[in-house]
Amino acid sequence: MIPQLVVRGLTSRLTCRNVAVRKNEFKWYHANAQQEPPLSKVAHPLTPQPWLYPMNLDDSSDMSRILHDYDTFLFDCDGVLWGIDHFTKFGNVKQCIEGLRKNGKKVLFVTNNSMHSRSVYIVKFKEMCNFEAEAEDVFSVNYATALYLKSIAKIKGKIYVIGSKGLSDELDSLGLKSFGYGMDPDTISDYRDDLLRQRLDPDVEAVVVGFDIHIGYNKIYKAASYLSNPDCIYIATNDLETRVQLGPNRIQPLTGVLTHAVNVASNRHPVVIGKPYHHLMSCMMTTYPEININRTVMIGDSLKTDIGFAANIGVDSILVLSGSTTKADLEKNHECRDYEMPTYILSSIEKLGEVL
Ligand SMILES: [Mg+2]
């Protein structure tokens, strides 16, 4: 049985400075929904309401409630397990992860980075944080995309890929037939006859877009052409990550730029697997259908992706201030309500590691 998560969320806000009202309806459907009634989100009576300012766990002597209230811990990686520069190490990460496991908790890793496969993360966990992880506990967006195509979309034919080696490797690991990684083999031209001579594979059933340093005109042309068939499925690993500042006057374009280019060329909108969309949770449920959504918490550093993801799948969240979001950002968001607010805030998971 492959469980599928369908989130029917309606969020409406009546905002008057610090007042916001949310209406959310979440329903879980399983493949045999007739036999299993949908689960509804039941908030712990002591859980702070998300429109209030989140409880600061640094100041709380009741950190143990985290262990009491949750069985499954979803960890973002960049900015949580290590710095957003990918090199800064944080203290007590090993104690945090292993301490949770010793307390019988399920620890899963969810990252939107579409450059790497799971094997890269397993090595990085060991090198940066000195803890071990199994491949099935790492839900990188590349692996989740492959899992979605195989187990939920049930693709049997070929997949045209705009993406990294990490994405191509994950598709291969699940036995999916894909092509497109690397430099496009055809001559670059804007002449009609040259473009018409480029061969399109008639067995393509899906187009997938992820991070790709080999992006070029031919790839966008081919993706848009495949997607002119309405039966061709369109998947993107991410769409919100569009740019990052590498240094003074240096902007690196990210996956969202590629996704938007294909969107415009094809006049299609993809199923986006990465956070904050709920499909990543559907993919996790294919591997771990026993996860109790009412006892799951998401730990991340981004209001837009991590805390948004938690809100979309109906779980509580802990925003760590060790990554892309500062305390000032959080307070500004509390006023402006650009994004959902977390349930809790924590300076870093080092604090959690201290009590485990
Ligand atoms: Mg992050």
UniProtKB/TrEMBL annotation:
In alphabetical order, the GO MF annotations are:
metal ion binding; phosphatase activity
Q: Which residues bind Mg(2+)?
A: 76, 78, 301
Q: Does the keyword Thylakoid apply?
A: no
Q: Which UniProt keywords apply?
A: Hydrolase, Magnesium, Metal-binding
Instruction: Tell me the superkingdom of the source.
Output: Eukaryota
Cofactor(s) the record lists: Mg(2+)
Q: Does the keyword Hydrolase apply?
A: yes
Question: So where does substrate get bound?
Answer: 275
Could you tell me which InterPro entries the record lists for this protein? HAD-like_sf, HAD-SF_hydro_IIA, HAD_sf, PGP_euk
Q: How is the cofactor bound?
A: Divalent metal ions. Mg(2+) is the most effective.
**UniProt-listed Gene3D superfamilies:** HAD superfamily/HAD-like
According to its UniProt record, which residues of this chain constitute the active site?
76 (nucleophile), 78 (proton donor)
What's in the GO CC field? Answer: cytoplasm
- Pfam families recorded for this chain? Hydrolase_6, Hydrolase_like
Q: What is this protein called?
A: 4-nitrophenylphosphatase
What is the native source organism of this protein? Paralvinella palmiformis
Lineage runs: Eukaryota, Metazoa, Spiralia, Lophotrochozoa, Annelida
